[in-house]
Amino acid sequence: MTDEGTSAEEYPTEIHEYLSAFDKSVISVDEMLNKMMSVSRSELLQKIEPLEQAKLDLVSAYTLNSLFWVYLTTQGVNPKEHPVKDELERIRSYMNRVKEITDRKKAAKLDKGAARRFIKHALCDPTSEEASPAKIECKSKTQKQ
């Protein structure tokens, strides 16, 4: 971040750590963008599932708009009063939708038939030796019939 002609004395020492962290972040973003740009988009999209494609598109759009947010800040424009804020919120809402879909896919599925059989046999088994109140009541009903 510092050039040969620029010394640490030209800016307050209190912000040196912040500038160093910012410099590392910019380098990291640059490396990630270079990785993404090294593979053609069509080739990448052919290899992944539609839900993953949506995630990739959302992350790309969010990253681009976030970088624009930073650019506006560096130019002295308040990004909170710029349409980019609305765009970031819109993308975030789509990200939440994709997360809900992903969570639904991961959720355990209930086999209703198996659950019914399990409950029925647990509550009403007239031949069982164990005598729970529910089983006694069930036994008396089946004997009356």
TrEMBL record:
GO molecular function, one term: DNA binding
Top-level division of the source organism's lineage: Eukaryota
GO (cellular component) term, any one: cytoplasm
Coiled-coil ranges per UniProt: 84-111
UniProt entry tagged with the keyword Transferase: no
Keyword annotations of the record: Coiled coil, Cytoplasm, DNA-binding, Nucleus, RNA-binding, rRNA processing
Pfam families reported for this sequence: Sas10_Utp3
Subunit structure: Monomer and homodimer.
Function: Plays a role in the recruitment of the exosome to pre-rRNA to mediate the 3'-5' end processing of the 5.8S rRNA.
PANTHER family: NUCLEAR NUCLEIC ACID-BINDING PROTEIN C1D (PTHR15341:SF3), SUN-COR STEROID HORMONE RECEPTOR CO-REPRESSOR (PTHR15341)
Stated family: Belongs to the C1D family.
UniProt protein name: Nuclear nucleic acid-binding protein C1D
Biological classification of the source: Eukaryota, Metazoa, Chordata, Craniata, Vertebrata
